[in-house]
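ok so i was messing around last nite and threw this chain in just to see what happens. nothing serious, just curious
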Amino acid sequence: MSKNNCGRYIGIDALREYMTPDNIARAESALANLRGVFVYVFPYLTQSGEGNISLYARGEDYHRVVRRQLEKQMQALSERYPGSNFAPFVDASPFPEVMAAAMSGLGVVGKHNLLITPRWGSYVFIGIIATDLERASEHLPLQSCIGCDACISACPGGALTVGGFDASRCLSDITQRKGALTEREVFLIRSCGTAWGCDICQSVCPMNKSAEPTDIAEFGFDLVCTLIPSDIPPTQAEFKRTYERRAFSWRGRAPIARNLELLFGESDGGQ
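result:
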């Protein structure tokens, strides 16, 4: 667990307005008598320099790291609150993670739709522990970023607007997409030089200028910052064996192999 990263509790009633009916049903089916969630943030920024892999995916797969951290927290919570039940969620969560974190006082909501924390900026993962424990909620009014619009102006695909977020135009989403890409999507990957993910909206954010590096060991060593086509094994099985500990492996070899060919070869973006 990152130093000074204590879980904040927020009652489920405060989150319902940000949840779809399907997500409410998913959350309630995952844990009987759901009363609230503990919210945690896990910083991942390192001083690793340039690269064509997004900063969040350079260390060990955050799904693995955050789950291990949450399991430790659940053990501590179980000892502190015997008789209560807990369930961890990482990424694919029915809960509105950014809203939960902001409402519990861990940060503010940026125009790039990410949580911005005072200490680590927006370079954090959010973990949730759902519980049937009922306690005083730390529900605070939502706070927004400074509103400079730097992320909106810098977004290469135009995914960020004053009206919201369009995932279909997000470069990070495009690099993870399977199948053939449009000419515009190919242009975006080539012009931005990214093989996986995108950090532009975070790198231009003035609230990230003083972001501290992570103190979580798994995010700070054995980094993969840049890949070239020859780094990608020829088969899916070999790719999984080589990069199973990396967050960029979850979509399989095809998307990242295609992106690298776009950057270093003559691929037109087809599969």
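not much to say yet. The mean pLDDT is 94.
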